[in-house]
Amino acid sequence: MLEIREAEVRGRLYEGPGYPFLEVPEGDVLAEGTADPLADAATEARLRASPASFRRPVAASGAPGAWGIVHGEVLTFDDPDDRLPAIDRLEDFNPGGSSVYRRVLVHVTLKGVTALAWLYTIEASGIHGRRIVSGRWPE
């Protein structure tokens, strides 16, 4: 691993059984994770190199049920072929099979700078926890 940085993303955070889970707006998803980590890294690089696709995320709202800001961490590493499958297993993401989470590419904010990051989100149909309105876990 090269770096761990604090990040923010537009979404909703929920309390799960011992861990949180994240939901992001479908319109913010730029790509879906696959079983090919090198192809996913290439997709990220292509989107990063294309200024037209690198739009700023829509601001969060404080209205009930609206999207808020979720605080977390972004891990950076230089060997996606090795690390990404291991993290996918840890996060129970099984591309093409039954999964608890899905891996999606979205815009995040790192100290005021917009960047791309792969995040693990739960399917909206799987949300059954209490919303953590502060966007921070633990609360």
- Tally of DSSP β-strands: 6
pLDDT averaged over residues: 86
How many structural domains can be distinguished in the coordinates?
1
Q: Which range does the strand content fall in?
A: 25-35%
Oligomer: single chain
The Rg value, from CA coordinates, equals 15 Å
Order of helices and strands: EEEHEHEE
Low-confidence stretches: none
| Major beta sheet, strand line-up | 2-1-4
**Helix segment tally:** 2
Which shape, going by the Cα principal axes?
globular
Protein described:
By secondary structure, the protein is α+β, with helices and mostly antiparallel strands. It has one domain: Hypothetical upf0131 protein ytfp (Roll), CATH 3.10.490. 17% of the residues lie in helices and 35% in strands. The strands form two sheets. Strands 2-1-4 form a three-stranded antiparallel β-sheet, with no helix packed on it. The longest helix has 13 residues, at 37-49. The mean pLDDT is 86.
